[in-house]
Amino acid sequence: MESRRDKDIKQRKDLNADTLFSLIRSRFENLKDHQSEKAQIPLADAFMSAFAMFSLKDPSLLFFEARRSDTNLKTIYKVNKVPCDTQMRKILDEQDPASIEPLFSDIFHQLQRGKCLEKMVYLDDYYLFSIDGTGYFSSNKIHCKSCCTKTNSKTGEVTYHHQMLCGAIVHPDLKEVIPFAPEPIVKQDGEKKNDIERNASKRYLEKLRKTHPHLHLIVVEDSLYSNAPHIRELEKHNLNYIIGAKEGDHNFLFNYIKSAVKDKLTTEIKFEKDGVAHQFRFMNKVPLNESNQDQLVNFVEYWETTPKKTLHFSWVTSLKVTEENVFDIMRGGRARWRIENETFNTLKNQGYHFEHNFGHGYKNLSVVFAMLMMLAFLVDQVQQIASRLFNAVWKKLGTKRRMWEDIRSLFIGYSVDSMEEILIALFYGFKKGKLLISSDPPPS
């Protein structure tokens, strides 16, 4: 018979952190290790050590190295030989970041099989998929062959930087996001020019559809993407979209709508709900711009008015807009911010140290580290979706920063068999034993 205590902390065994750590370890073991047979650190151990560093939210590689002798790295993260910082940098700098990508789809398929994504479905069995770029490294001195560059026109000073294009399943009513494998925005092999977000987007969409050919997605993006070439790319990959459109960038489109308003060809809706005034204007099958009048889109304009202020938004979409679905389309378009607020801001401000330089390397290290950090973030998001225990500990401790600190504290201070054991101790409390000194202290 299940006890009340067991019921309070019951977890999905197929989706808890320990199961996912084992899945990640097995994937790393299947990678081809190009090191010599005499290599001291196996590739899987180097990868898993770096992943453990980001999973534990260690503030630096040196901080992680101080725990090299910690047996918990073996019991929880399955690391047999922990590399020193120099070894880890050297080994991972040579690795192709693309080798990490399949892990994201492995974990996503675990969520699908566990039916944990059903609550994220939106608009006729689709998922909202927010795509945006972010930077995570910038320096005037440190750089690698993959760095993009910016040159100050006045001083001639060169700034080296890394960015990546990220995509995540989002929902207007949920804080959880499901990130997919990011696409690095880096100088491509043999290229002298900087990579740009638009080129990265083409690569990203190709990979997205190759990995998830039948997934029903509505891509939500900012106004940077409301251009004909990008929309054609989305259509080529059978992806629906809701993309921001600004009047300053689309004078022809907005003038077309103004003319249609005069001719009473648009649909206008106004209503109040919970003290908020909502006003919509929409029209289907309108030309995107003067140069691409054959590229037809559906247009939505929206005003939200409260006693304090009025907000104005507009989008182009592939979805046929009706009076019944326009409110949902608006909410879907605004859910784009979830990738900013719940992904990038979380990584930068809630203990992940996203913008810290853990090690740049000469080839791929910076990108490999960024992808492993995003992988650790995905595992945490799965816990937030599927683990009652994880959420109970989070609620008890108040903030994720506090939770990461307490997890690290128990990881360092006690011998444990699993991450679940640490979370159970944090939820129910634990007894602190007397400090045991393993050897005679040094003379004073």
Automatic annotation (TrEMBL):
Organism: Methanosarcina lacustris Z-7289
An example Gene Ontology molecular-function term: DNA binding
Transposase IS4-like domain ranges (all copies): 198-376
BP GO terms, sorted: DNA transposition
Protein name: Transposase IS4-like domain-containing protein
Source taxon at top rank: Archaea
